[in-house]
Amino acid sequence: MIGFIKKDIAVMKSNIKILVLLTLLYVAMGIFGDMDISFILPFMVVMVMIQTFSYDSFNNWNAYSLSLPNGRKNSVRAKYITTIIMILIATIITFILSCAISYLTTKSIPIEKIGFTMLGTVFGTILMLVLMYPIIYKLGVEKARIAIFIMVFGLIGVGGLLLSFIDLSVVGKTLSFLEGYIIEILILLGILMVYISYRISLKTFSKKEF
Amino acid sequence: MEYSLELKNVGKKYENFELKNVSMKLPKGMIMGFIGENGAGKTTTIKAILNIITSYEGEIKIFGLDNRKEEAKVKEDIGVVLDDMFFPEIITPNDINDIMKGVFQNWDSKMYNDYLKEFDLLPNKQLKTFSKGMRKKLEIATALSHHPKLLILDEPTSGLDPVARAEVIEIFQSFIENDECSILLSSHITKDLEHIADYITFINHGEIILSETTNELLEKYGVVKCTEEQFQKIEKKDFIKYRKTKYEYEVLVEDKKKFKAKYKVDVVDKVTLDDFMVIMIKGEE
Amino acid sequence: MEIIISNSSGVPIYEQIKEQLKNKIVSNELKANELLPSIRTLAKDLRCSVITTKNAYEELVKEGYIKPVPSKGFYVAEINRKIAREEQLNKIEELLEKAIWIAKEIDEPKKTLEEMIKILYEEEK
Predict the structure, then answer these.
(1) What tens digit of pLDDT does each residue of A16-70 get?
(2) Closest chain A residue to the Cα of B126, Cα to Cα
(3) What's the CATH fold of domain B3-212?
(4) Which residue from C12, C40, C41 is facing B215, i.e. has the nearest CB?
(5) Touching check for B55 and chain A: CB below 8 Å?
(6) What pLDDT, on the 0 to 100 scale, is given for residue C124?
(7) Which of A3, A58, A66 sits opposite B102 (nearest CB)?
(8) Do chains A and B touch (3 or more CB pairs under 8 A)?
(9) Which of A174, A200, B185, C84 is deepest in the core (most CB within 10 A)?
């Protein structure tokens, strides 16, 4: 599987300039601006990874990869692992930069707050990954983009509708006993989501013929 | 005899195309030429062999093992060149070396780099800057560099000039100097195959028309060229197919010698793979 | 060792290989107990299929010109040069008979044939 991970990284390499540029932008914004865009780097990493799917189908790598030992399983597994590793690396870089900015400027944001933002970012980007990859495997990148667009707006719509009916304070009270475990819950939930999403993607890809 | 590759009644239905009962056997140490028109089913057959399509009927054995049950094991020993399927074009030959180290247990970086040198391929250039011929050569280098025992090559010489073609054909022949190694080679450049292929398998409209040794095919079959009047005298059971051209009838007969004896004709031409294919595909029964 | 294959002669390639090897053995260019190239190497060097060279070697074994040694390869056999030569001479005679027959058909004098042979013989060298 190492080979397949290396392949995804090799394809990503061509987008490294964009990522570096974004990092610089982030640093500049952090020093001179007020807006917090610390999510930008991990978020872009996912976008760049999604781009690798386009290259895979454009040059029929998908079909070629199936001629290699364990092609089906390794292709899917490598996509998930590479994306997660990249998200974590991007997050760590952002965390270090945020701390540095906070230290160097007068903003002095508490380290816990930075950490919490980063945890939220990781969870958010992983949520993106687990929702998008099965759809991409099912429909291909182009159609998946449209499907995801519809899905996101649908979710916002349904969510908004629900919120107008439900009294949030009640929900808050019932869930208040979980408050102390928020980090553990997010991590566990993340792992569970990744696993389910991976199984669905693998199943879809196993049936694919080229 | 030991076989590197055996297909038994392989079938696959598509909306507008069907692969029907494809059977063939490639003995160890031999080269099999796989010929047929574009769209006849060569690539579909190859995809079934490699499990790129999985929902086919029938049985495929590679090195005597079931290719679906023992897929990972079998694939360690297969090298492929596929028509228009390869790595994403934004990576470089060096990346491929790196990647393949993590894919094949027997990947041989030195061998791969030697091929890059032999083929004049720059290791640091993105594939998209390569010409079609250069890409083909890179695909061939990639297919050979993990010491496979079976090469499955779909149109490996397309896009190559005559000099490069001779060069890679020589590489394929060196490959089977080791009598453990075999090649299945599809091509519509039949001249290449006539010389080096031990066996010829001919597919048309998804069905295998014939699969036998090249020598037998070329020595036994013949083409009779005659006038309409002469053609009328030939019994239907004595020829396979015929083709009417502007000036003559071209009649494909299965046994040159028998035909000569029966009809007392002096000239029955040796068949070439090209003649054979054209008359079989375009001819009438 | 030279072996020349013609794709247009109409003679099967394995037969061309067989005949040329046979001639080399009879003329002592290939000496008894000399190791021949392997079937696969010869196929590669002549750009022909493995089955072709295999056929040629098998026929030569059958006719007693070469002998297989398991896991080593094929060696030139000790042949009775006299008998082998006789065989080849018989073949020449047969072919000449045919030529003479055609010459007589069209009333060509013996002299033409003699001259032809002379010129062709010289050319071949």
Answers:
(1) 888 888 888 888 887 777 767 778 888 888 888 988 898 888 889 999 999 999 8
(2) A14
(3) Rossmann fold (3.40.50)
(4) C12
(5) yes
(6) 65
(7) A3
(8) yes
(9) B185
Give yes or no: residues C72 and C95 share one domain.
Answer: no
CA distance B76 to chain A (A): 6
Query: Is residue C70 domain-shared with residue C92, that is, in the same domain?
Result: no
Does this complex have an ipTM over 0.90?
A: no
Neighbours of A (≥3 Cβ pairs closer than 8 A)? B
Closest C-alpha among B143, B134, B133 to residue B50: B143
Are A74 and B72 spatial neighbours (Cβ–Cβ below 8 Å)? no
Q: B131 burial class (0-12, 13-18, 19+ CB within 10 angstroms)?
A: exposed
When divided into structural domains, chain C yields a total of 2
Residue type, C55: N
Sheet containing B199-204, strands listed edge to edge, beginning at the edge strand earlier in sequence: B78-81, B150-154, B182-186, B31-35, B199-204, B207-213
User: Do chains C and B meet with 3 or more Cβ pairs nearer than 8 Å?
Assistant: yes
* pLDDT one-digit tens code per residue, B140-173: 999 999 999 999 999 999 888 889 998 999 999 9
Farthest-apart Cα atoms in chain C, separation = 58
Domain ranges of chain B: 3-212, 221-282
- C116 Cα to chain B: minimum distance (Å): 27
d(CA A17, CA A15): 5
Q: Specify whether the CB–CB gap between A134 and A201 falls below 8 A.
A: yes
Q: Which residues of A touch B72 (CB under 8 A)?
A: 69-70
Question: What chain A residue is nearest to B127 in terms of C-alpha separation?
Answer: A59
Residues from chain B contacting residue A71 (CB–CB below 8 Å): 75
Q: Which chains touch B (3 or more CB pairs under 8 A)?
A: A, C
